[in-house]
Design goal:
Elements: H1 2-40, H2 47-83, H3 86-92, H4 97-139, E1 158-165, E2 171-180, E3 187-199, E4 205-219, E5 229-243, H5 266-290, H6 301-304, H7 313-317, H8 327-393, H9 400-425, H10 430-434, H11 436-453, H12 461-476, H13 478-487
Antiparallel strand pairs: 1-2, 2-3, 3-4, 4-5
Helix pairs in contact: 1-2, 1-4, 2-4, 2-8, 2-9, 4-8, 5-8, 8-9, 8-11, 9-11
C-alpha cells in the first residue's frame, strides 16, 4: 500500500514540477532581457548568437529557478490532493503527513544535490560565456540601417543619404555619398538617380551598384588653393563597396574574463580563499612592522627609556621635548615632524584602502562559496514550506498556490539579497549573511508542518470569523455593566 502511495505522490509531483520549472526559467530569462533589451536591438545579431546567449543565460538562472519550482509544485501537489479529499482519506487510513511527504522529501534532496553539482560544474562555465557575450554585445556598434532622407554617418569617412527605398530595401533612389579622404584635404561626392543596395554574403561589406550619376572629385595638396583640380565624371553604372566589418559584434576569448570569483568552482574557490587569506595576513604583518621604520626616533628608543644617563640632569629635569631643544632648532624640528606625520597619514590611508579592497575580495569569494550551498539547500527548505502549506490551504491549480509561492519566494530572495549586502560590506559575517534566508524560512517550515499534522485552521476564514465574533461578544458583555456603574 505504501509503495502505491509513494508512486501516487511522485506522479502527482513530477508533472507540476517540470511545468513550473520551465515557466519559472522562462520568466527569469525574460526579466533579464527586459533589463538589456536596448543593448540587443539594432546590433545586427544573428539568430544563432541570440539563441546561444539565451542557452548560457538559462543555465545561469537554473539554481534560482529550482527552489521556486519546488515550492510552487509542492504547493500545487498537496493543494490538489487536499481539494480532492485524498489527503483526508490517507490520514483516515492512519498514514501521517510526514510519511506521506517522505518520497517527495527524498526527491527534493535529490534535486538539491543536482542543483549543487550544476552550480559547481556548469554554472561557472555558463556564467563566464554569458558575461563575455553580454559584454561584447553591449559594446558593439549599432548595425547598419539606412533611413530615407537622413544622412547616415556612422561609417568612418563616409556619409550616405538615400531619398527613397523600395519595399524590398534593395532598390534605392536619389543617392548621395559623401566621402572624406584620410588626409582630410579633399572631399568627394557621388550622386546617382538610382541603384541597388546589398550586403555581401559574409556581412562584411555593403555594396552599392549605382546608375545614372556623377562623381565629383577634388585633387590637390591645399584645400584653399586655386590650383586644385576639380573633376566631374559622369557614369551609367558605378560600383562602390563600404567596409562595415567594424559594426559587427566581435566576441572575445573567454580566458580574458576568468579572474572573477563567480567563474570558480568550489575547489577553485577554496584555493583562492586560502591564497587571499595568506596574502592578506602577510601584507598586514609587513605593514605593521614597516610602518615606523622610516622615522628617526626608532633608532633612539632605548636611549630615551631603558638607558637613561643618571648624570644628565637636563634630561631628567625636562618635562617636554621643547625644553631639550634650543630656540633656533624648534621651528625646524616642528616642521620636520609635521612633514613626517603627513607622510605617515598618507601611507596609512593608502594601506587602509588597499587592505579594505583585499578584504572585500576575500569576502566576495566566501560569499560565492556559500551561495552554491545555500541555493541548493533552499530546494529542501522551500519544500518543507510548500508541502504543509498546500495541505493546509487545500486549493489546487495556479491561483492560491501561485500567490503563496510568490510571497515566500520574495521573502527568500529579499532576505538573501539583504544578507549578501551586509556580508559584502563587512557588517555581518559571510556565513550569517548568506544563510539568513535559511534561518528565516526553516522555522516557518517547521511551524507549518506542526500545524498541518494537527489539521490546523490556519488559513480558514471561518475560524477567524468565529474568533473575531467571540472577541466581540467578550467585550459586548462589559458594555451594560459599565453603563450601570456610570448611572449609579
Amino acid at each position: 500500500m505504501f509503495k502505491k502511495l509513494d508512486k501516487l505522490i511522485i506522479k502527482a509531483f513530477i508533472g507540476p514540477f517540470i511545468a513550473t520549472f520551465f515557466i519559472t526559467l522562462m520568466v527569469l530569462v525574460m526579466q533579464f532581457f527586459w533589463l538589456y533589451i536596448d543593448d540587443f536591438v539594432g546590433k545586427g545579431l544573428g539568430v544563432d548568437v541570440v539563441l546561444k546567449f539565451i542557452w548560457y543565460q538559462s543555465a545561469v538562472l537554473v539554481p534560482l529557478a529550482l527552489p521556486l519550482a519546488v515550492l510552487l509544485s509542492s504547493l500545487m501537489t498537496f493543494g490538489n490532493l487536499g481539494e480532492s479529499f485524498e489527503l483526508v482519506a490517507i490520514k483516515s487510513a492512519g498514514i501521517s503527513l510526514l510519511r506521506f511527504m517522505r518520497p517527495l522529501l527524498i526527491i527534493s534532496i535529490f534535486i538539491s544535490i543536482l542543483a549543487f553539482l550544476f552550480s559547481n560544474y556548469v554554472i561557472p562555465v555558463a556564467y563566464l560565456k554569458s558575461r563575455t557575450m553580454l559584454s561584447d554585445i553591449v559594446w558593439a556598434k549599432p548595425a547598419f540601417d539606412l533611413k530615407e532622407g537622413v544622412f547616415y554617418d556612422r561609417m568612418n569617412g563616409f556619409a550616405i543619404k538615400i531619398g527613397e527605398k523600395e519595399k524590398n530595401d534593395s532598390v534605392i533612389r536619389d543617392v548621395i555619398v559623401y566621402e572624406q579622404q584620410q588626409n582630410g584635404l579633399q572631399d568627394n561626392f557621388v550622386i546617382a538617380r538610382s541603384g541597388i543596395m546589398r550586403v555581401s554574403a559574409d556581412k562584411r561589406f555593403l555594396e552599392f551598384n549605382l546608375k545614372d550619376g556623377w562623381r565629383y572629385q577634388e585633387k590637390g595638396n591645399n584645400p584653399n588653393s586655386a590650383k586644385n583640380d576639380y573633376i566631374r565624371l559622369g557614369f551609367k553604372e558605378y560600383n562602390k563597396q563600404f567596409d562595415i566589418s567594424s559594426m559587427l559584434p566581435t566576441f572575445t576569448n573567454d580566458s580574458s574574463n576568468r579572474n572573477n570569483e563567480k567563474f570558480y568552482s568550489m575547489r577553485q574557490l577554496n584555493r583562492a580563499i586560502d591564497s587571499l587569506k595568506k596574502e592578506n595576513a602577510f601584507i598586514k604583518n609587513n605593514l605593521e612592522k614597516g610602518l615606523y621604520l622610516s622615522f628617526l626616533f626608532n633608532r633612539y628608543l632605548d636611549s630615551t627609556s631603558a638607558k637613561k644617563n643618571p648624570g644628565d640632569s637636563a634630561f631628567q629635569a625636562a618635562k617636554t621635548l621643547d625644553e631639550l631643544l634650543p630656540d633656533s632648532a624648534r621651528y625646524t624640528v616642528a616642521q620636520q615632524a609635521i612633514g613626517e606625520a603627513s607622510s605617515m597619514s598618507a601611507s596609512i590611508n593608502a594601506a587602509d584602502m588597499n587592505m579594505t579592497e583585499r578584504d572585500k575580495q576575500y569576502r566576495k569569494h566566501q560569499i560565492e562559496w556559500h551561495r552554491k550551498i545555500v541555493l541548493s539547500v533552499a530546494c529542501v527548505v522551500l519544500f518543507l514550506i510548500g508541502a504543509p502549506l498546500g495541505s493546509i490551504i487545500r486549493k489546487g491549480g495556479l491561483g492560491t498556490p501561485l500567490i503563496a509561492a510568490i510571497c515566500f519566494f520574495m521573502v527568500f530572495y529579499f532576505s538573501t539579497t539583504v544578507g549578501e549586502k551586509f556580508a559584502k560590506e563587512g557588517q555581518w559575517s559571510t556565513f550569517s549573511g548568506m544563510w539568513l534566508a535559511i534561518f528565516v524560512l526553516l522555522p516557518i517550515g517547521f511551524f507549518l508542518i506542526y500545524k498541518a499534522m494537527r489539521d490546523s485552521q490556519l488559513f480558514n476564514k471561518e475560524a477567524y470569523t468565529r474568533l473575531f465574533r467571540a472577541i466581540a461578544n467578550f467585550f459586548r458583555r462589559f458594555k451594560p455593566a459599565t453603563g450601570r456603574n456610570i448611572s449609579n
